[in-house]
Design a protein that fits this description.
- The longest helix is centred in the first third of the chain and has 18 residues, at 20-37.
- By secondary structure, the protein is α/β, with parallel strands linked by helices.
- It has helices spanning 20-37, 39-44, 53-64, 82-86, 99-112, 130-142, 169-175, 195-207, 221-232, 236-240; strands at residues 72-77, 123-126, 150-152, 214-219, 248-253, 256-261.
Length: 262
């Protein structure tokens, strides 16, 4: 399971070392810790019954997000893989892109290279998993970039799906029919990464001073759903209802999210 603890200590550092963007994320982190550890504050804030730590982290981030207007992000999911086509789960394991997946990746790049997209000066980051890197390489080629321009970012990896990795979705639902109606069923696998852990590593990346302010990311279905939910301040129910397209991507700027078809 890929888990990067979200334990920022930015407020104890000299302010001159950090932008206002970083400072506000650090303030959000500190507020989260206070609310999470003090049930009386949850009650006073009418957070009853007490919310999960993941919900509180999301809530606290939402309080500060309207002030964070420095980042502009294009959010891509990798193209179709052989496992996608076969109805099998991947998680931290990998499967190569299909012909359709490679065409989808090239379509991402062509769309990003033309108006209304303006990617001049953007950095290209990718999950280190093979299907994401393969997609990123095809996107880079359409943008006129070398593959050396791609930065691998482990915090953008797909959720670890525990014992269900490489299993067929139909077999999982047949064995656990109650899960078929749940949008979050992926994370019910034995040994799966938790939603709180996924949020933590994504928030850790967002508040990292090294994170570019203008960036294209290539990631995965579950991870991008959680990431967009964080940016939009969605509750769990609304977050899981989001789509996971491979023929479109998302653009986030100035607090607004737009879906761009390819």
């Amino acid at each position: 399971m890929c888990f990067y603890p979200w334990e920022p200590n930015l407020l104890s550092q000299p302010m001159k070392l950090y932008s206002i963007h970083t400072f506000l994320h650090g303030a959000s982190a500190s507020l989260c810790k206070i609310v999470s550890s003090w049930p009386a504050l949850q009650s006073a804030a009418r957070l009853e019954p007490p919310m999960t730590s993941g919900y509180i982290a999301n809530l606290c981030h939402r309080l500060f997000l309207p002030l964070l207007m420095l980042q502009e992000i294009y959010i891509l999911r990798h193209g179709q893989t052989e496992f996608n086509a076969d109805g099998k789960l991947q998680g931290h394991c990998n499967s190569p892109l299909t012909d359709l997946g490679r065409a989808q990746a090239r379509a991402y790049g062509k769309t990003l290279a033309n108006p209304p997209c303006d990617t001049a000066g953007f950095q290209l980051l990718s999950s280190p998993l093979g299907r994401a890197m393969e997609t990123a390489a095809l996107v880079a080629a359409e943008l006129g970039l070398a593959t050396t321009a791609i930065t691998q970012e482990p915090r953008l990896m797909e959720a670890g799906l525990g014992e269900w990795e490489m299993a067929r979705i139909a077999d999982i639902h047949a064995a656990h029919p109650v899960l078929a109606g749940r949008n979050d069923w992926y994370l019910q696998a034995p040994g799966a990464e938790t939603l709180t852990a996924i949020r933590a590593r994504l928030l850790d990346w967002l508040q990292d001073p090294a994170t570019p302010e203008r960036v294209i990311i290539v990631s995965h279905g579950i991870t991008t759903v959680v990431f967009r939910g964080l940016l939009l301040g969605l509750d769990d129910s609304a977050m899981w209802r989001q789509d996971k397209p491979q023929d479109a991507f998302y653009h986030f700027a100035n607090g607004a999210m737009a879906r761009i078809g390819c």
